[in-house]
Each structure stands twice: as C-alpha cells, then as structure tokens.
Amino acid sequence: MPLGNTLDVAVIGGGPGGLYAAALLARQGHRVQVWERNAPDDTFGFGVVLSDETLGGIERADTDVYEALGAEFVRWDDIDIVHRGRLHTSGGHGFAALGRRRLLHVLHARCTALGVTLRFRTPAPPADALAASHDLVVAADGVHSATRQSAAEHFRPTLTSGRCRYIWLAADFAFDAFRFEIAETEHGVMQLHAYPYAPDASTVIVEMREEVWRAAGLDLCDEAESADRCAKAFSEALRGRPLRGNRSAWTGFRTVVNERWSHGNTVLLGDAAHTAHFSIGSGTKLAVEDALALAEAVAAEPDVPAALAAYEAARRPAVASTQRAAAASMRWFEELAGYVDQPDRQFAFNLLTRSRRVTHGNLRLRDERFTRAVERDFGCPDDRTPPMFTPLTLRGLTLRNRVVVSPMDMYSAADGDGLPGDFHLVHLGARALGGAGLVMTEMVCVSPQGRITPGCTGLYTDAQAAAWRRIADFVHTSAPGTALGVQLGHSGRKGSTRLMWEGMDDPLPEGNWPVAAASPLPYRPGVSQVPRALDRRDLAGIRADFAAAAARAADCGFDLLELHCAHGYLLSGFLSPLANHREDAYGGPLENRLRFPLEVFDAVREVWPGDRPMTVRLSATDWAPGGTTAEDAVRIAAAFAAHGADAIDVSTGQVVPDEAPEFGRSYQTPYADRIRNALGVPVIAVGAISSWDDVNSLLLAGRADLCALGRPHLYDPHWTLHAAADQEYAGPAAPWPAPYRAGSRKPPTGKG
C-alpha cells in the first residue's frame, strides 16, 4: 500500500520502544493498536538512562513527549569509581535518567492522546495472523521475542550468553553520580553499577561471574534474600541502607543479533532485533532510536517494503557499533578480577575507557584534571608529553616512544634469493625517519624451505646478512634513536605460495619447494601442499637454523629480536591444537605443544646478546572451535616469559582458513590486555589500532606497553611525527630529522 494512505499498524509489546513507535506512527495519521500482555504499571527494572543524542531525536520528532520527559529527568555529570576504598570522580559525562514506570506513563498518555488503541493484559495474536490483517506489524516483544522465534528461519537470530549473573535492584535514595564499585569477597569479585533515576531513588545492579554467584550461594536465594545479601556486600556504598526488588531475579545477559530485521510486513524493533549490555546503558536508548528511524522511514518511503529496508539500512551501522562497544564493556566486567590489582587511578581510567567509545582525548576534554593525574601516574614526564611519547626500557634498550612499526611482509626480495634490496632500504628507512620508537622488519626466514613466497627475505646466508647490515647502518646513522628489530620465522605448512597480490596462500604454479610442519595437515585442504611431519632430526636442524639466523642478526646490529610464533607459521602450528596432531612429546597437551617453540626460543636466546631484548609474537586465539583460547594464550605467554621473553607481541588468528574473527576497531587488544594484567609481562598490542588517541588510551589504561601499527604506516610513513604535531608535542621522543624540520608544521590548505 502506498504510504500516502493510512496504514493499519499492529505493535506487539508495550515497552518504551513499542509505545514510542506507536505514538510516532499515530502522529503521522496511521491507525495503531498495541498489545501488551502485562498491566500498564508492570515493568522490570527501575531507571532508564537516555543520552543527549537520543533526547535530541525525540525533541525533533515529538516536542510533546520531549517536554513531558524533560520535566521528569534527573541529570548529573559525574562518574564515581571506588577501588579498594579509594574514590575517584570523573566529570563532564552528562547523563539523564528517569523512572521506567514514569517513562511508560508519559508514553501511555501520548499514545492515548493520539488515538492509539492500547490493549493491556492481552497477549498479541500470532505475528503471522496480525501480518495478514494489518499493513505493518512492529514486533517490540523483547529479548525473548516470540515473533522472532516463530520466524527464526527468516530472521536468522544468534543468541550468545555472557559469563556473568546480574540482578536489578533499587535503593530509596539518590546517588550523587553514576557509581561503580567492587567488592572483593572470599568467593570472588562482585561489582555494583548504580545511578539515580529520581530525587529519592537509584537503580542498583549487582553483577558477578557465574562461578562467583554459585560459590556465594546466591543461586539459592530468593528475591528478598538476594537484595539483603547484595546490600551487605555494598553496605558502604549504600550507607547501610537496604535494597529492594521489583520481580527481580538473577539472570545472564544474552546478546541478540539477527541477520534480518524484517520478514514481509513484520519488523523487529528494540531488544527483539538486538541487545546491548546494560553497562553502557543502551537498551532503551536503542529501542527509542529504532522507533525514530522506523517512523522516519515510513514517512519517507513509497511503500512498506521500501520503508522496512530503509529503516534497517539506517539503523544497522549504528546498532553494530553500539553492540561492539557493549561487547567490549561486557567482556571487561567479565574479566574484572584481572584488573583489581591495577593502581587505583589507572583502574578508574581503564573502566571509563573499557568500551573504546570514551578515549584519552575526549576524557581529557571532559575532565582534564582527572586525566592529567592518570598521565602523571603513568610516568609522562610533564603535562606537554602525551603517553605515547613516554620512553620504555626493555633490558638494555630504551625506546624513545611507544609506537612500533608492525612487521609487514613485503614479498619484494628479488630473484628468490632472499636478499633485501633497495626497496627494503627505502621502506624501512622511511619509516625509521618517520619517528616510531621501534621499526620491525617483515618476517625474515631462517632457511630457503622456511620462506612463505619466493619474494620473502632471509638471514641464512652471509650475503643476506650484509644486505641487512646496510639497512641497520642507515637506520642508526640517519634516524638516530630509532630502534630496529628483526622478526625471525619459518613458514611451515604455509610456505611455497605465490606473492600476496598474485593469490594469497595459493600454491606456486611451478618451482614449489617441499613444506614441513608439526603434522601432515595442509593449510587449505585440497588446495595447499600436504606438509611432511617433522621428525626429531628435522627439529634439531630447524633449531640450528634459527640460532644461526639470530647470530647473523646480532652481527647486523639489530636492536631487538622477535620470534614469530603466530599466524599459522611453523612455530604457531606447533602451538595450535588445530594444526598439531602429533602423538609424541611435541603433541597433545599444551605443555607438549609448547616444547619445540620453547626449545627454539632458548636456542635463539643463547646466541642473542644478553643486553638486547627478545619478544615473541603469538596468535592469542585461532578464532575457531577447538583452537587456541584466550586462557591458553595466557599460559603460552607465561611459558615464554619464564624462559626470558621481555615482551609478548599479541596478535590473533591466521592459523586456519575457516576462522571467524570479530573484526573491529582495536579488536585484538583485549587479548594483549588479558595477558598483561594476568602476568604483569610487557605486551605489544596490534590489530586495527589506527589513531594516536587509541594508542594513548591503550597505554594509560594498562592494556598495552607498546602499540604496533601496520597499515597506518603504509598510508603515512611519518605517522608518528604527524601524531606528535597533531598533539602539539615537540619533545625528544619524536624528533624531526634535520633535513625534514621545515616540514614539521602542517602546510596551509587552499581556500575553500
């Protein structure tokens, strides 16, 4: 039906999202009915937080609702974080909240005024029946949506459970700010999330890992006893006052994702379509914004199918971004026990930036006093020095800043002889001149059979060593203060393939060399060469190859050596249970799978100068069922640290071709974060870190000690110097080479 005509609209669910969609559609002149199985005042939870952005959308769409809500809001700017008895307050955040029941009353009144038929205590007819008798069906029936379930083959939902249990409670007084507090009990860590929603009331959420919940016996408590136990756990925060429930029960958070949000003339809205963890306060916000977008699409498009397509296209990117942030926040709280030993102010900064939406830069704008204090604790020499330009010492090497040019294979050695040539001199030299504290080579192969492609460089001949010495001499002479690191590796089962731009991981059409690995498992079954399983004699030879390459690297003048145990190459293949099916002492349990990589590390460390640091790059997850897990990665990192690794370079994946990475901004950094805070070992974070603000944030939060960036340095070899200029930093950690000083200020742009 053309949307110039009046539509018959059925709304399933009388929560905030469904009611607001009903009001907006009725305001456009459509006939709207709402079915809600509960009574008008029945609601779960207590307070609702809305952002200024959401309120702006409400104001533009319906000033009556905006003004009614505005009269009810409690507003505050501060976040209080209590860590082991110490309170830290960060200001400038801007929150608005009101009671959930009061929000429903406002929306009930608005719907009634606009002629919406509200049916309470009335389960909705089946969605397919409503779809047959109405032009549009809006399914706002929550996280347990019957509509979504009845047409699961069309919506294709994925529901993922978190690792914590939580309960919604309330206190009969208003907190001064949004408050986070932890209780370290004999059973484990519990956390409190609390905020005011009325002049005399606050929402209080208590959350903890499932195993802590069970150990504390809370799984056996009813609502009243749960409220009493939680009040005692956080008696200081509550000033000895009680908590109360509202049909409150312990539950686990479920993340809902749907491949499609509409089917025919039925559309999902709010929690039925997507959920975001409460720790970023987005459930009601997302539902209200869905309602705004749906109403806009209905008003703008010629028919219902076009409107539903436009609604989904408009909302999906924003929802996906929110869900990524919510997932990061949820996981942070799931791993809270790993952060409680951080210094209290760093802990507070870490909590504030946990979702990666709040960064060092915008936190400094919100509360410069608090952020400056965190910087001083971190060791920034003065208020003019950003965290990324604070030096770091590993053994006898002091890096002038925390930026690393990540190892990036260039596949540009000529004639298959493994010799680095003029390209490598210019490539690495340019990045050394660009200001990074540490510039890493690509994976340099330890033998001809250990190459990935014919274009890979090596360190298995004296000629190669001479070529690398030329590059090291240039870096140390022309970019003094820049450290040059070499990454040594062996391709394993991923060798004898074409250059990346000719077909990544595709076998060579001719001139193949035999490949070897932990087990005779091809990387791409039916495509890749089947590797030969290495025997003990082979292993001894490869250990010797690594040691010989390391000795040459030391003579070349490299400042740091990294052992490549990631990305499915030989040593990584020993570590991963998906690539290592051996039944001898080098296979089976993790302790056995670690044996050969540790033997190689020890052989290299023995010949590598004692005052020069060694790092190890790991794939902290295989992104595949049955593969290396985050827990395994901590154990692997601990083993290398015990053998003398000075830092762990934490990457992920590329071990099996059918991996399913969770791509996104800084998506690999939680793995570095976990290793660092579990072990206290320095880590290098990698993976879609693209801005200097991200770097500063990761460092200050204690999630990384160094940040490695690859693609940004391909786009801009002077990325570090430009980051310094953008932050108005001109200190010793980012000196411009003398011939380039005239370009240290950004050129003026042309007139617009």
Taking pLDDT < 50 over at least 5 consecutive residues as the criterion, the unreliable ranges are none
CATH evolutionary superfamily of the largest domain: FAD/NAD(P)-binding domain
Strand segment count: 29
Q: Under the CATH scheme, which architecture of the largest domain would be assigned?
A: 3-Layer(bba) Sandwich
Q: How many helical stretches?
A: 26
What is the first-to-last residue Cα distance? Answer: 46 Å
**And the CATH topology of the largest domain?**
FAD/NAD(P)-binding domain
Please report the first level of CATH classification, the CATH class of the largest domain: Alpha Beta
Helix amount: 25-40%
Beta-strand residue percentage = 15-25%
Task: Explain what the structure shows.
InterPro entries: Aldolase_TIM, FAD-bd, FAD/NAD-bd_sf, OxRdtase_FMN_N, YqjM-like. Residues 388-724 form the NADH:flavin oxidoreductase/NADH oxidase N-terminal domain. The structure is a single chain. The chain is of the alpha/beta class. It folds into two domains: 8-335, FAD/NAD(P)-binding domain (3-Layer(bba) Sandwich), CATH 3.50.50; 402-729, Alpha-Beta Barrel (TIM Barrel). Helix content is 37%, strand content 19%. The strands form seven sheets. Strands 20-21-22-25-26-27-28-29 form an eight-stranded parallel barrel, surrounded by seven helices. The chain has a six-stranded mixed beta sheet with strand order 8-2-1-9-17-16, sandwiched between helices.
